[in-house]
Design goal:
The complex is a heterodimer. Chain A has 8 helices and 10 strands. In chain A, the strands form 2 sheets. Chain A has a 6-stranded mixed β-sheet with strand order 6-7-8-3-9-10, sandwiched between helices. By secondary structure, chain A is an alpha/beta fold. Chain A starts with 5 loop residues before the first strand and ends with a helix. In chain B, 57% of the residues lie in helices and 18% in strands. In chain B, helix 2 packs antiparallel against helix 13 and helix 3 crosses helix 9. The longest helix of chain B is centred in the C-terminal third of the chain and has 44 residues. Chain B starts with a helix and ends with a helix. Classes of the chains: A alpha/beta, B alpha+beta. Chains A and B meet through helix 2 and helix 3 of A and helix 1, helix 11, helix 12 and helix 14 of B.
Amino acid sequence: MDSALIRIEHLHKTYHMGDNHVHALRGISLEIPRGSFVSIMGASGSGKSTLMNIVGCLDKPSSGKYYLDNVDVGALNRDELAEIRNRKVGFVFQQFNLLARTSALENVELPLLYSDNDKSKFKERAMHALTAVGLAERYDHHPSQLSGGQQQRVAIARSLINDPQLILADEPTGALDSKTSVEIMGIFQKLNREKGISIVVVTHEPDIAHYSNRIIQFKDGHIIVDEAVKNSRNAERELAEWQDEVEEKEPVA
Amino acid sequence: MNKVFQSMRIAFRALRVNKLRSALTMLGIIIGVGAVIAMVSVGSGATNRIHQQIASIGSNVIIIQPGSQNFGGVRSGNGNSQTLTEDDARAVGEECPDVMFSTPIQQSQQQIVYGSNNWGTRIYGVSPDYLTIRDIRIEEGEPFTVDDVKSTNKVALLGKTVADNLFAGEDPIGKTIRIRKVPFTVVGTLVSKGQNSSGQDQDDLIVMPITTAKKKVMGGGRANSWQQIGQIMVQARDGRNNNAMDEIEGLLRQRHRLQATEDNDFQVRSLEEMAAAQEQATQIMGLLLASIASVSLIVGGIGIMNIMLVSVTERTKEIGLRQAVGAKTNDILSQFLVEAVSLSLLGGCLGIAMGVLASFGISYFAGWNTLVSLPSILAAFFFSALVGVFFGFYPARKAALLDPIEALRYE
């Protein structure tokens, strides 16, 4: 099990729109070892979303190979893809994508409905995931009663519930203010560090990308930069400093 | 099994979100199922009434009436001539192997007097077998006998209505009533048969020996001296109705000395066959009503399909999310199918309640006979489930086959 979690070889993806052929990815090769924290950057249309869809097993390559945990994803059918998403991949979206009129707890339970798990454990496991993102006491709140940051934490808890090997976050901080963004990145860092879950974040904010350990940049369907991050930012430490600043300022105010 | 409950829970939550919309969609099914139940109940009520009618006539009853007669090319209408005799009645009873009982019948409307009371009613001059054929029982007293017929005894059996009106609580047995100033002894009263299907009182009659009726009541004119009678009523053996009719026809043609080229001067009709024909007509009417009503059930189903399509479009993003977290094709399919079936089944149950109420309403206000049967309720229940599956399948399939990427991107 020392092979890479994600192994991509000469990956092409071409969309056919009438007579037009759009080459979204033009021969990508890439390996992401287990336990990585990777940022993917690039302008819109650069192919990064296409790659994310393929890595997340929502889409299949036109040619080339993609192995997730040694499984050739290109050979799977629709339901097999659904199963692999359910068991191995957690998704976090920019717009949170929580079900309205449904409590935080039930939102977190959602992926369990589609796996053959023991129903009596649902609640316990969902509470456990909510605790991991620090939102246990809000379990019965509906999304409309939660702030953006809290909603994103519920979404992260949902992505965690089936103990995935990989969490894919598509612009997870795009709809959040800076402090909340740091908090969310802090949660990702903690999950990466403590649980060894691989995390891939798509972002176009370099600040956010610097919380990861590796940045991959896309342009026109090619990888143009793939480098390790020196001196990664530490969200926890920054938050603590933030807290100190506020406390220092308080007597003045 | 867990999965089914899961789907039902999700479905009911989704339906609760749009209460008004769900209610309006169900209304189509409610009206459809209600209409089918009500119409079927009207149909089976009518059929049931005909069954009762057959029962009140008596079983395997055949009626022979005088037919048309030909006087040198002038043909009279049925029943106007007097071609049947008491001897014909006796011969039919004795010589036709498939006839069990036979009685002549001569009727007339008369005024009856007892003390200071009087009452107009119908007199039936018959032989004792009449009571057997019509399945009329004696309440009190005794029936008259063959000897009474032979001796032209002045005895009478009173229907309940006649007894009530003349005697008002007094015991009529052994009392003397007068018909056209002729005294009759009441030997018995008849068990009440109530109203027949056309609302006629079957207890408003007096039954007496045919001989007495003709000679003492109806006045011995020329016709009576020829022993002519109004009709003959016959009971055939079980299942031998048609044979009996053929035998009667053959015997009477022979007795009336009809040539092969001549028409029958009598008419043989089986009441049961007439009733069966009527029953068939009623069943066809019931079927017609039910099929018109089931059109509204189909319209209700189309309403469900419409709303489910809207719902799938509205919830595209939710479907995308469910697919992303691992919902398979069948998970999404069953979720929307269960939702559609829940709508139609709930509507079906309410529709059954409405249909039952409606059929009670119809029998109460319009006075029609209605009959709500368990099979029709079960059929309606399963049919509404079927409507849900049929009309819910296309939208559910559409949802299940959405591309997860497109669905997630949908705004």
